Amino acid sequence: MNETVRAPVLVTPGKIEIQSFPMPEPEPGAVLIRREMCGICGTDKHSFSGYAVQYSGTDHERSLPFPIIPGHEIVGVIAAIGPSHENLLDFSGLPLQAGDRVILGANLSCGQCYYCRHGFDYFFCANMEDYGNSLSAANSPHLFGGFADFVYALPGSYLFKVPKDLPVEIAVLTEVMSVTIGLDKAKQFSAVNNEGFRFGDTVVVQGVGPLGLCHVIKARMLGAGNIIVTDRSSLRLELALEMGADMALNVGHTSPKERIEAVREMTAGRGADIVVECAGVPEVIPEGLEILRPGGFYIESGNFSDMGDVSIKPHLLCAKNLRIIGIGGEAITAYHPSMEALLRYRQHYPLHKIVTHRYPVEEAEAAMRCSMTDDSMKVVIASSEYL
Ligand SMILES: [Zn+2]
Ligand SMILES: [Zn+2]
Questions:
Q1: Which residues pair with 355 in a beta bridge?
Q2: Which of 63, 258, 294, 310 has a CA that sits 20 to 30 A from residue 132's CA?
Q3: Which ligand is nearest to the CA of 124?
Q4: Other beta carbons less than 10 A from residue 86's beta carbon
Q5: What is the reported pLDDT for 199?
Q6: pLDDT score of 277
């Protein structure tokens, strides 16, 4: 093959160039995916804005290896399968062949490190590679991000067959939905009396971009009582109300004190049982801790890139017996259940409204900028048939 593939390359923060790469032939174990749609994640926005450090404070702390092709929320069609892999299976054991629509798991784990061997979620892996993040476009075969028209899935990548009735613009939400495992985790704690996320609990979601919105939907599915959302975008707050939130507080029009009081009022003075941080900025965390009732759970999912510090009062953790759960990514076991849930609940939630903007490859930088405005929800890079 001597065709070329177009790819938006983030050469340095704030600067995307459209480059061409040779169409690769997959090596044994690898798969070439013709990307149909790729969501822009909060992490991509952070990378674009120059927050280039991830996994700070762990032994696999790293800086992004610019140039990179962003994008890890990838849905597409298998274009080619590497040789001697005729019996390719997806993560659930479903047979895969060229032409099948799949989601590519965002990360690649080594299977060999302490965390992999001990059954931790795959994002604990000490040698993790992340599509759109850790693999440099300078290295052959270059196409390691979903913004490109074709994506090279390395041997050992996780593939998930997309149910045939799940539209592409909803399937593209699978990875984000799979990051809502903080709620599942909190639910697991509820096996212990008065811990975790119990049926009927009040849940506050700080920041209702796509990740926050998926937490609203998931919290409702898992039996939340009142769901309260905060954001500065009225479009996002409106959508959150449509997806099952009960109260929306615009942070542009209310003070922290007013928001804390509004939550207390809704909870007979106690405060929220669960707060989920999906704003992706450290500044919201002190308010989230204030909003919690004694013994409440704080789920931190939004600051995946190192967004710097914020000061908190540790006394509050003791005085209120708070629990904090950090979530470093999506569970690999959550992809199929997330797709099934999106398929099943399509009739109850207007999921087709979540993708608000679609851009072609050539306009990737405009897409990135659009995704950072208050007037967008999920922005995607799409192939021509989905524009
Ligand atoms: Zn993501
Ligand atoms: Zn590992």
A1: 378
A2: 310
A3: 2
A4: 8
A5: 97
A6: 98
